[in-house]
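Listing S7. Sequence submitted for prediction.
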Amino acid sequence: MRTGTTYTRHFDIETRQHELLGLDLGEGAPRRALVMGLVLYLVWTGGLLLLFGLPSQVSFTLYFLPPLLVAVIGTQRSRKSDRRWNITYWALGVRYLALGHRPIVCGGRRSASRVEWIPRRARWGTKGDALRRESVRRRREYEMDTETPVIVAGAPIALDARPRLYGPDAVYRARQRGGRTSTGGAA
């Protein structure tokens, strides 16, 4: 029998680095985020060094900024699930697009056959269509870009909404006036 454990945010204890190379980090940065950022930086910069060589003053930003952004934004808590980082959702999304969904059949007693997998075309279809629509929309906006602004609508409409609360007695009287009986049938 399998047992599952649920840890809430109250038990989410993480170690923090308060000082780095003699530099005070204040309340401290999470060590897991620092280690992940270091690994991303080494892999990214190592790959770029192998491909393009040492960075110039212009390309230094390309060497330094992407791993920093991925480390900072990726280690934040996800809005979908409080227990996961953003980078976890990114990795799951990339894995789904690349490998697909492999269903669990009979509680894992047998592996799914190739026919039971969701094909790549079905997985990429909605995302590909959305990307295609977005690129077409941007291209149209670029082609239609003129110096004079185009007015696409009239003046804004001021709404003066007043909420009204009707009780059961008012609803009963309105139903009687409308020609319906209390049982909801026609009179």
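Caption to Listing S7: primary sequence and predicted structure tokens for the chain studied. The radius of gyration is 29 Å. The chain has a mean pLDDT of 76.
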